[in-house]
Amino acid sequence: MITITGAAGNVGRPLVHALVAAGEQVTAVSRRPGTGAGPGPGVRHQQADLAEPESLKPALDGAEALFLLVAGEEPGRILEIARASGVRRVVLLSSQGAGTRPGAYQHAAAFETAVRQSGLDATVLRPGGFDTNALAWAPLVRAQRTAAAPFGDVGLPAVDPADIAAAAAVVLRGRAHAGRTYELTGPAPVSPRQQAAAIGAALGEPVRFSELTPAEARARMLAFMPEPVADATLAILGDPSPAEQRVSPDLAVLLGRPPGTFEDWAARSVAAFR
């Protein structure tokens, strides 16, 4: 049995499907009932909240492995419960920022430290920015065929969450990944302006790119991000380090194929922008 937290998310949902397709028994955990991966053989649904570690106990019953999000404030307690439940392996979905800017991404860095000290066979996945972040443009693209972002010509190797899920499935089912940290990126840097063009190509009509000032972008980010994370994210978007612009080989090694491009993701996701 493999327990997947965040089963309703961009990574969790395709991860549940990938594991079930591979013949695994899965417990799909989400905070709200009815929001996890769809019903089907091999999937047991469980409502729980990482902010309340005790609520995870039923979801961990019989589990050998745990896919863990960075959520809640008690990673040590979550992992104590997992170990007491018989879990032997944990795969943490962390963030590239935990490695490149740990001072700003303290939450993710704390979870990484906790899983490494848990006594479990631990693997850390550090993705960069998600292709699905472009879904924030969907209302504006639908209404005005416009996308807006700062630093329009700075490219970063954004990654498809479906590829993250596929890699997580490989790691969760394998036995040779303990102690490893994998950096997960797309196959090439792509700028916001290029992303807008790719969405336009998928739609079959142009999408105009409108460049926000850093101050405008920061004001929007503060609506859903803590201030240190918003500032660090802006720094990555506008002045990324070489490590943040680097294309990692890890996804290709784990998947046995190149990761998908942003264009691939846009073509597959075009309905959101129509």
* CATH homologous superfamily classification of the domain at 2-131 and 160-185 and 242-260: NAD(P)-binding Rossmann-like Domain
Q: How many β-strands, per DSSP?
A: 9
Indicate the structural class: alpha/beta
Model regions low in confidence, pLDDT < 50 over at least 5 residues: none
Q: Roughly what is the average pLDDT, rounded to an integer?
A: 95
Total helical segments? 13
CATH structural class of the domain at 2-131 and 160-185 and 242-260: Alpha Beta
Distance between the termini: 39 Å
Lateral strand order in the biggest sheet: 3-2-1-4-5-6-8
Q: Radius of gyration in whole Å, from Cα?
A: 19 Å
Fraction of residues in helices?
A: 25-40%
Biggest pleated-sheet summary: 7 strands, parallel
What CATH architecture label of the domain at 2-131 and 160-185 and 242-260 applies?
3-Layer(aba) Sandwich
**Proportion of residues in extended strands:** 15-25%
Key traits:
274 residues; alpha/beta; Rossmann fold; 7-stranded parallel beta sheet; two-stranded parallel ribbon; 13 helices; 39% helix; 16% strand; globular
Structure overview:
39% of the residues lie in helices and 16% in strands. The chain is α/β, with parallel strands linked by helices. The protein has a domain at 2-131 and 160-185 and 242-260: Rossmann fold (3-Layer(aba) Sandwich). Helix 1 (12-21) packs across helix 7. The radius of gyration is 19 Å and the shape is globular. The relative contact order is 0.13. The model has no long low-confidence stretch (mean pLDDT 95).
